[in-house]
Amino acid sequence: MSRSDSEKKSIRNGDVQRDDFDRNAPSSSSSSSSPMKKSGLMKLSSYVLALRPWSLSGSLMPTLLGSTIAYKYLDNEEQEFNYITLLLTIFTVVTVHGAGNVVNTYFDYVKGIDNRKSDDRILVDHILTKDEVVSLGAYLYLAGCIGFILLASISPAKMEHLALVYFGGLSSSFLYTGGIGFKYIALGDVIILILFGPISVLFAFMSQTGRCEWATIYYAIPLALNTEAISHSNNTRDSESDKKVGIVTLAILIGHTASHVLYAFLLFTPYIMFIVLTLKYSKWFILPLITLPGAFKIEKQFRSNDINSVPKKTAKLNLFFGCLYVLACSLVHTLPYITKR
């Protein structure tokens, strides 16, 4: 066979192979759209992860509790419980909480607190950029403000009263690590106790009823203590790394032994309160005690110094504990200290 014939045959074979490849290969549009879809989903999941969804029960449960107390309080024909108000209240509170988590992520990274061993790795592992985290926080605060405006337009509460509680909570969520940075001067625990207890419960109650009922603070105490247990266990776990960068938390000030005692106090005091309420008022208050065995397991793990997963486990306990507490309040015929309107 001559050289020219050989070249022609080679070219023909190459054309056939290329035709086969072109027929079997996916189109350029489909091959490019798949990575884009995957990238979009990954980015969305990164934003969700930045919110620390496992911690959102800390604001959701007090909101549901305040709404439940309002439901019992409004047990009459003059004023009905508004479920749209409930949804707007949940949206407003949770978005502000999520924004606070994002602000916490940003300032912990900027101040050099988060590192490769930290639980929050959003910025450490470059999952999101600093600009993306800042934008996410701004959008969440904006969403919270929009939710508040819609809520205030349908709530029977006076605008100035509702705004005082709302903006008090919003500013506290930012100042926890931003601005003054209460977390870094051993005052973060105070903010957690107030924000995820009385403030959230009162805000939800006021949104439904239009009234300020200070007795709701009594009902906020068990959830506030339980939520503070999440924060305290997190600070205890990070005490060594926090100490290296020069910030001060309550866990650093009192040391590990006293931190364990405080954690046990925060975790088990609500159960003692429910035992008293059960014996004195209603058998339904015994429902949250279903979670007591789980609390003992988490406390034992805290005592063993293997506390890396304790904050998330405490948050999970808080979710079930809060749900049973809200259920108990809804089943009780008359809530102590709360007079029906």
From TrEMBL:
An MF annotation (GO) of this entry: prenyltransferase activity
Cell compartment(s), UniProt: Mitochondrion membrane
Keywords: Membrane, Menaquinone biosynthesis, Mitochondrion, Prenyltransferase, Transferase, Transmembrane, Transmembrane helix
Record-linked InterPro entries: UbiA_prenyltransferase, UbiA_sf, UBIAD1
GO cellular component assignments: endoplasmic reticulum; Golgi membrane; mitochondrial membrane
Top-level lineage group: Eukaryota
Ranges of compositional bias, category Basic and acidic residues: 1-23
CDD domains: PT_UbiA_UBIAD1
Segments traversing the membrane: 81-100, 133-154, 161-178, 184-205, 245-265, 271-296, 317-338
Any GO BP annotation: menaquinone biosynthetic process
Chain intervals for the UniProt region annotation (Disordered): 1-38
The protein, known as: 1,4-dihydroxy-2-naphthoate octaprenyltransferase
